[in-house]
């Protein structure tokens, strides 16, 4: 027969002198993937049954187009075993997985109490794929007093192609530095009550803030100079205050000592105690020491009365009549 004139390899079927194509099944390997932004790997597959010895595939598999995170059908593309084969293709999915990134808030971000928040900054590793960018912004725990506040991811978003891990840092509101300066030339007269001690502050406190407490001074009620100190004055924990002291002066109390009129004695008698009036009165608890005297002489005559040793002390400025 004609069949006796042909050699038929085991891989082929002889049918009435015709060599038919070999049926093969090409199956794409499962679980093929890449990370978003990376290059596609070579798509792999298995074939059953194997090609005849010496035969080989040309071309390659391809997949549905797209570079976002998703699953994409793998197709036969240009893969070809040649005209001796009839191929059945079994597709599997190719997966683009999210790219993992770490967003780290920058350390040492801060503002001074009362100032506006700066834009919160951060670093990202690894960098985003070319053409991608963040939307939104970081934010922080609420609060406007001097303290530390955790920075959080807020609305910051690199899109659905990324899986982001956020590393928080602290945002610090620092105290506002102010200088409190006691007003100069503050004083009182000996024996009177202290006035309220006044001061200026620079820069001004934030709207809505106010001082509590008052300035004080070194203790003492005699005529002298006393340093003014910060006392209990405070603007609260949001401020760091420097204090500039000034002097508080207690001045002498002015009094008028008037010798009483018509003071006299009879010739040859002993001098009486010379009397006087004082206006205004001495401070409670104070008293005169010493006494008046008069011009010398014992003959009948008029003699001027003088202050002598009379004194109310160093806290007084005395005028004598």
Overall helicity: under 10%
Strand percent estimate: 35-45%
Radius of gyration: 53 Å
Tell me, rounded to a whole number, the average pLDDT.
Answer: 95
Please trace the helix and strand order, writing H or E for each element.
Answer: EEEEEEEEEEEEEEEEEEEEEEEEEEEE
Tally of contiguous helical segments: 0
**Which oligomeric form is depicted?**
single chain
Strand order of the largest sheet: 4-9-7-6
Overall number of strands: 28
Your description of this structure?
This protein has 321 residues and is mainly beta. Helices cover 0% and strands 39% of the residues. It contains no helices and 28 strands. It has strands spanning 14-15, 18-19, 22-28, 32-35, 45-48, 62-63, 70-75, 85-90, 93-97, 99-105, 109-112, 122-125, 139-140, 147-152, 162-167, 170-174, 176-182, 186-189, 199-202, 216-217, 224-229, 239-244, 247-251, 253-259, 276-279, 293-294, 305-306, 316-320. The protein is rod-shaped. Mean pLDDT is 95; it is low at 5-10.
Q: Can you lay out the helices and strands and say which pair or pack?
A:
Elements: E1 14-15, E2 18-19, E3 22-28, E4 32-35, E5 45-48, E6 62-63, E7 70-75, E8 85-90, E9 93-97, E10 99-105, E11 109-112, E12 122-125, E13 139-140, E14 147-152, E15 162-167, E16 170-174, E17 176-182, E18 186-189, E19 199-202, E20 216-217, E21 224-229, E22 239-244, E23 247-251, E24 253-259, E25 276-279, E26 293-294, E27 305-306, E28 316-320
Parallel strand pairs: 3-8, 4-9, 10-15, 11-16, 17-22, 18-23, 24-28
Antiparallel strand pairs: 1-2, 3-5, 6-7, 7-9, 10-12, 13-14, 14-16, 17-19, 20-21, 21-23, 24-25, 26-27
């Amino acid at each position: 027969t004609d069949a006796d004139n042909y050699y038929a390899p085991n891989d082929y079927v002889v049918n009435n002198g015709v060599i038919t194509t070999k049926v093969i099944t090409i199956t794409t390997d499962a679980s093929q993937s890449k990370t978003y932004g990376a290059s596609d790997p070579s798509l792999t597959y298995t074939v059953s049954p194997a090609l005849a010895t010496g035969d080989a595939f040309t071309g390659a598999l391809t997949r549905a187009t797209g570079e976002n995170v998703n699953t994409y059908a793998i197709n036969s593309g240009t893969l070809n075993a040649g005209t001796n084969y009839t191929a059945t293709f079994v597709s599997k999915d190719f997966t683009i997985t999210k790219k993992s990134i770490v967003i780290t808030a920058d350390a040492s971000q801060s503002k001074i109490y009362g100032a506006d928040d700066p834009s919160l900054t951060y670093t990202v590793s690894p960098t985003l794929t070319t053409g991608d960018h963040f939307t939104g912004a970081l934010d922080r725990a609420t609060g406007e007093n001097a303290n530390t506040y955790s920075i959080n991811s807020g609305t910051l978003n690199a899109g659905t192609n990324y899986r982001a891990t956020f590393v928080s840092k602290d945002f610090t509101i620092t105290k506002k530095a102010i200088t409190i300066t006691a007003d100069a030339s503050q004083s009182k007269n000996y024996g009177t009550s202290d006035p309220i001690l006044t001061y200026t502050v620079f820069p001004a406190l934030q709207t809505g803030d106010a001082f509590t407490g008052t300035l004080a001074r070194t203790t003492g009620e005699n005529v002298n100079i006393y340093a003014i100190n910060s006392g209990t004055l405070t603007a609260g924990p949001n401020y760091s205050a420097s204090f500039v002291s000034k002097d508080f002066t207690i001045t002498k109390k002015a009094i008028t000592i008037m010798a009483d009129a018509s003071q006299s004695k009879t010739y040859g008698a002993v001098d009486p105690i010379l009397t006087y009036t004082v206006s205004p009165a001495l401070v409670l608890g104070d008293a005169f020491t010493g006494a008046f005297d008069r011009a010398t002489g014992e003959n009948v005559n008029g003699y001027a009365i003088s202050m002598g040793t009379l004194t109310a002390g160093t806290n007084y400025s005395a005028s004598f009549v």
